[in-house]
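User: You have something folded?
Assistant:
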Amino acid sequence: MSRSIHHMREQRMRALLQASLLAAFSATATAAPPQSASPASSPVNATAVPTDAKADIITLPIPWKPGLVLRYATEHVESDTGPGKREKAVTTGKAEIRTLSVDKDGVLQHWVGTESVHRYLEGGDDAGREVAQAMRQLDGVPLKVALDPDGSFKALVDIEDIAGRMRAALRPVMESQVRAEIAKAMASAEPAQREKALTEATGRLDGLLARTTSPQVLGALLARQPSYYAFFTGGGVEDGASYESATEIENPLQVGNFPAKMTFGMYVSENDPEDAIGEWKVEIDPVKGAGVLLATMEKLYDRKITAAEREALPDTISVVDSGFVVIHRATGVVEMYEDERTTKFGQT
């Protein structure tokens, strides 16, 4: 694997992973729009560990042509378990990736999710259902994705528009939930006390919404899948070889980066030689990552974690992303994509 390919994949991996960890912790993570096809991006100074002495290089055409529309059925399953808690939800829908333009500057795509249906298979509460229902307002709103001429992920365009729509959808629902909680908790209090508590709580809510839907944070969250999706564009890796790299995942809240280890590889499918399969795995450093996470949460929620709270928290955290993508070798089109994130913090 040439050094130029190493560098290209490092740039892709960094674009993909910048603050993608926040999706595991942010309250708005499950509200992110289209769940569609997508793989990983890349490492610096990646080391190849070939499975045979002489492997072939897998090359793939860049599929993007103006007017091309790819359609996918989507399913997002989320489960949450911990002491006294067991919850599982599934969201199904459809997604389209529309290629609007291709020129010397790159590619412009619209990622559009529609027909989303959210349901709990286990557990769940009214608050979660209300948020899921509110997020249906983003059905049909395009996420504008820009790619470099080589097909690698470059940026999200007009993320401010998505951020504004998301805040508009979530704000009334979350304020209603805050009102209900205060009314229940302060049922015997004077009206003036309840009103003061409500004013303070909605102020905190507005601050949290502003931070979680800032262009830096929301952009990192929503860029995650388009970046994964574009990672193996063009191929350029040895058939059956494994590559690994140590790097850092940048944090959009700028309170320290997450040290991580990345591995990826690609091989021609044994069942169908017309397909190539790309696989990847990303793991953060469990000890250093926990410290960065705590600092991230303090900034996200705008409050210090007390010494007593820190004492009760675990010293490590495990966040592992893994997945695979199936690509048609003759066209470079992604036929199937699947990823899994497992996060463990203490017993949760």
